[in-house]
């Protein structure tokens, strides 16, 4: 019951703080930890397999976190995200503009 409540709180926080990447990542880390605890308590795995499963879950969580950070930085035009914005979109903008000299 406690894990279910914590999971619902983490999902709510994950959806509520969608503009703040640090809180999103913390909520996602809490979700992954709760999922790991619930899966490891239901099945009795040995320690090495348990550790490998935790490592895989954390790598997947990090990949999703980096994807979220890039997606949020594309949506916000702040000073902090201007570097990522220019690295990804400036070249595409200048390459896709019509050339006024060639109709």
From TrEMBL:
One of its GO terms (cellular component) is membrane. It comes from the Eukaryota. Belongs to the complex I subunit 4L family. Gene3D superfamilies: 1.10.287.3510. One of its GO terms (molecular function) is NADH dehydrogenase (ubiquinone) activity. The keyword Zinc does not apply. Keywords: Membrane, Mitochondrion, NAD, Translocase, Transmembrane, Transmembrane helix. It catalyses: a ubiquinone + NADH + 5 H(+)(in) = a ubiquinol + NAD(+) + 4 H(+)(out). The keyword Ion transport does not apply. InterPro entries: NUOK/Mnh_C1-like (IPR039428). This is NADH-ubiquinone oxidoreductase chain 4L. The chain crosses the membrane at residues 21-45, 51-72. Pfam families: Oxidored_q2 (PF00420). Its main location: membrane. It is a multi-pass membrane protein. The lineage of its organism: Eukaryota, Metazoa, Ecdysozoa, Arthropoda, Chelicerata. It is found in: Membrane.
């Amino acid at each position: 019951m406690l894990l279910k409540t914590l999971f619902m709180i983490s999902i709510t926080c994950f959806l509520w703080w969608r503009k703040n990447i640090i809180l999103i990542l913390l909520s996602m880390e809490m979700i992954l930890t709760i999922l790991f605890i619930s899966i490891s308590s239901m099945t009795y795995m040995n320690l090495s397999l348990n550790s490998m499963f935790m490592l895989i879950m954390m790598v997947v969580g990090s990949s999703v976190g980096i994807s979220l950070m890039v997606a949020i930085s594309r949506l916000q035009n702040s000073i902090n995200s201007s570097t990522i914005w220019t690295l990804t979109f400036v070249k595409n903008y200048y390459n896709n503009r019509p050339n006024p000299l060639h109709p």
